[in-house]
Structures are given as C-alpha cells and as structure tokens.
Amino acid sequence: MFRLIPLVFVLVLSACSLTPGMEMKAENGVSALEVPVMKGGRMVKEKPKIVPITADLIIERENARLQEANNLPPADVNKTAYRIGPQDRVQVTVWEHPELNNPGGEEIEPEMAGKVVDDNGDLYYPYVGNVHVAGKTVSEVRTLLTRKLSNYFKQVKLDVRVLSFQSHRAAVVGEVKTPGVVSMTETPLTVAEAISRSGGVTEHADMSNVALARDGKLYKIDVLGLYEKGNTTQNLLLKDGDVLNIPDSKENKVLMMGEVGRQQALQINKGRLSLSQALAEAYGLDFNSSRPEEVFVIRPGDKKPEIFQLNAESPDAMLLADQFALQAHDTVFVGTAGVTQWSRVLNQILPSSFTSIMSRAAFVGM
C-alpha cells in the first residue's frame, strides 16, 4: 500500500484541472473571464473588475441610490386643477333661461346631457357659437361663457361642470387586480389613487420598484416607502399619457452558491436583502470547507456586469455585509478552501476505502 503513496501525489498534481466545485479565477483584481458589456451604444468584450466591499464603496453606492430616488419628474402646480379637453362632456346651466338649457324642450337622458368638446377643443353653445375650452379649468370656462352671454342677456348666472371625463387618462398595468386605463377627474390623480382605483396590488407586486413611463423617460418610484414610511415625495401626480407599471416580485431572487450551509435561491422581500441576511438565510459559511476571504457577489446588471468581494475572515466584516444591499439576479458565491479541494480530488480519483486508510494514516502521523 505504501508503494502507492508517491503515485497518489502524482495523481493529485495531475488532477488540479479537475478540482471539484467552482473557483473564481482572477488576475490582478480582474476576472479571467471575458463577458459582453455595453459601451458607447455597442456590445464589446471585457473582463469585469473585482471590487472589494469597503465602507467607501457602500457610502458611494448609497449616495447614488438616494440621488436616483430623488430623480423624479418635477411637480407642476398648475396642473392640479382639471383642465377640460377633447371628448369631455360638459354641462352648462344658465339660471332663469330654460331655453338655453333645453332648447328643444324634450327630456334628455342624463348620460346624453351636456355637450361634447370636439377634437379641436371647441364647445358649441347657443348665441356665442364655438368657444375654445381645451386646456381651461371649469372656473375659467364659466368666466368665459358668462362674459360672452352678457352681450345678449343681463345679469347672467351660470354653472359649468364636467359630466364625463374622457380626455385625460393614465394606464395602470402589471401586478394590480384590475389593470387598465384610469380616467382623470376633478380630483387630482396620484400614484396611490391610481393603484387604489385599479383594485389595489396583487400578492406578487414589487412595490419598491414601480416604474412610471412619462414623455419617453422611465422613473423608479418607491411606493412601499410611501406606504410604510410616509414618503409623500413618491406619491406623484399623474398626467395624461402616463403609464404606471407595478412589476412582479417573483423573479426578485438571489442565488446562494459555493461553500454555504445551503445552496438555494432567496426571495427579496419588500425590496430589501443585505449580504449578511442572505448568508444567514443560507445557514452561513461552511467553516469546514469555505474560504471566508472569498465571498463574491456577482451582479449581471443591465449589460454592465459587476463583481464584488468581501473578506469575511474577521467577524466584524459582517458590519459591511449588513449594509451591502443585494439586487435581484445577484449570485453570492463563497470560495472553497484549498484543503477541501484536495480532499475532493482524492475522493474522485481514489477508492473510498483507500481514502479512508490514507486519512487515518495522516491522523496518526504516518
């Protein structure tokens, strides 16, 4: 048996390329693997840098996140009042002049009452003819008609109201119970109101990553922060043509791989999952086989892959891990200790009985 020992070491050395498991290969802080990266509007090959997880990195990333959260479209205070537009049905009531309110004398169904604003934004009314009302508030139209009718009647008193709101709409799609188009009324339509009028969100809704599409731009809205922390800056006023998309949270997962207690996919709940929480959910590092200084976070990004590394040899590194936020589709990979790799090679190339004998021999000092 002892004559076979030199042969064992020859086999081990020749099996380096067959080491079981995965290993991060890097050169001077750069991954050895070339990956597709978007640069200057075109795809190129590049080796991602391996960035250490430090306090400076966490501060930089958090400041960037806060800046992005504040990157919202400016509020237009002039748009809070409803402005009449094409296809709206408007009713004008002139007191003490029934001939104006019901020129034909016949009864009119309530849904057919009033007059529809045409595609040019004009409203026809007896005596004054076509009046351009698009873009005006109810109060402004009331003042305009009062002034024009005063040329024909004394002490004109009238009322204007919108019977059917058709000109201004926003779409609410994604994880709401009744997705579709929501009409804007005299009550300003906010993000929270639009979601409520769509039946509320489903159980799979990701409220922390709601997307607002407006004028060819996309804005991220943290509706969860609005509901849980009262962050009213996220409760934007919607305007005509907006599209509000509530995404699905089922794909918001982080993969735990390598030398962790349990390899699995973890769900990001309510948009929050730190590196330390993820490691704890995976039953921590396997201290019998792991290399704590090689805790990697591999982030595919949007064609901009990134790799981060945490040196967890010291327990206080968990302070950094607790403040490092993971994102959907991240992969956390913990490296394998060299001794463990060597042991796994033996288990692959040698019979189990022989490996057991070798282990006992090593234990007694042979």
TrEMBL record:
Keywords attached to this entry: Cell outer membrane, Ion transport, Lipoprotein, Membrane, Palmitate, Polysaccharide transport, Porin, Signal, Sugar transport, Transmembrane, Transmembrane beta strand, Transport
InterPro entries: Poly_export, Poly_export_N, SLBB_dom
Keyword Signal: yes
Domain SLBB: residue ranges: 169-246, 253-334
Gene Ontology process terms (BP): monoatomic ion transport
Cellular-component GO terms for this entry: cell outer membrane; pore complex
Topological relation to the membrane, as annotated: Multi-pass membrane protein
A Pfam family assignment: SLBB_2
Keyword Transport included in the entry's annotation: yes
Location of this chain's protein in the cell: Cell outer membrane
Domain Polysaccharide export protein N-terminal: 79-162
One annotated GO molecular function: porin activity
Domain of life: Bacteria
Chief localization: membrane
PANTHER family xref list: POLYSACCHARIDE EXPORT PROTEIN GFCE-RELATED
Similarity-based family: Belongs to the BexD/CtrA/VexA family.
Protein name: Putative polysaccharide export protein Wza
